[in-house]
Amino acid sequence: MEKLIKELNSQLSIMNKANDxxxxxxDEVLDSLYSVYPFNKFEYIISHLIGTDTITLQQYLNIRNxxxxxxxxxYVFEITxxxxxxxxxxxxxxxxxxxxxxxxxxxxxxxxxxxxxxxxNGIRIEVxxxxxxxxxxxxxxxxxxLSSDSKYGFDMNFQQIKPACCDVFVWIAVxxxxxxxxVLSSDDxxxxxxxxxxxxxGNVGExxxxxxxxxxxxxxxxEVGVRxxxxxxxxxxxx
Length: 239
Prior knowledge:
The chain is an alpha+beta fold.
């Protein structure tokens, strides 16, 4: 978003000089502009830029395509319900990129009662997901969403972690432009210095772990490419 705003502001400056302030597109005017989806200040700016021949249609398409490429996963930040994101989206996404994973049932595990998300050749797998958002911001998720090269600090909280209930964890982290994956064993979690047990009072064996811009590099050994997730799951299970 920052790059788009910078690019549009640059074009607005050109337009204002060429039209001798005939159009008032100041920050004050744009901020007070009444917007109803899909008509907003960006549509308002772009229509003026094209209408005044400040940019061509092809230039607009280039701007649009570049924005879409930088924000290919922005739609994930539009999911506002935590359970829908953490369970429905994350589990479906992982199963799409690793179709070998099976939905667990008592057919595979007679003791299964919802403790984990996937099963693969005797390996119990739990999926956790989080999104990189700007720290200390009261805006909506989609406004706080960060790109992978952002300089802003971010928090990603992996919650309700129960190491005793599975063999392997797959973590999915989403930025505007990339998705990253980590695969950790239950022991990796329990022994990690950032793992905090006792997330909720009385919930024995449940905790959480925060990944931030200040400690994310310490998890590099667990990160895998999408094509190596299954291989790493098997390796981390010790099977």
